[in-house]
Structure formats: C-alpha cells, structure tokens
What we know:
Elements: E1 2-9, H1 15-34, E2 38-43, E3 50-55, H2 59-66, H3 70-73, E4 77-83, H4 91-94
Antiparallel strand pairs: 1-3, 1-4, 2-3
Amino acid sequence: MRCLAIEEELKPIDAETMNDVLKEEAQVIWELYTEGVLREHYFKDESYLAVLVFECDSAKEVEELVARLPLVRLGYIRFDCMALRPYPGLSRLFAK
C-alpha cells in the first residue's frame, strides 16, 4: 500500500545543530530507501518541507519509520502520515 508522509515544522533548526543533524537525517533517508520502504522523496515547491512516499502496510508503520529520523526524534519536525488507496471511479468507465 502506498502511504504519504507530509512534514510539519515544529521549531527552527539552529545553525550549530544543522550540519550534523542534517547529515544524519540524509543517512536515515538513504537507509529507508535502500530498505525498499521509502519509494520517493520530495520537497514542497514553495518550502523545504518534505513529502515522502512509502510502500508499507499502514500509516502506523510509516509513523514508526519516520520516528527514526533525527529531526523527528529531536522535536524539530513531525509528519502527517496517511495511507492511500486506488481511486475506484475509473471502474465506472469500464464496468459492465
């Protein structure tokens, strides 16, 4: 099942913390990607808020995965996680 995680910033990151934490953040993103659960990762066009696409069994599983991110663990960001399902409306065109 595809799941979406949309970042919400809780507090700004100070410059002193930024370099080390963001490097570790990128490492965890890489791990999630190589584990095959993180399929796509983007930033919103108007901001640097992340939009992550997962292949998981549930939104709960995604919540557990994003909890591994240093910025989440340290309280700088959180994610709104949701499971997606296919749009069934196209079947109206092809149902017999």
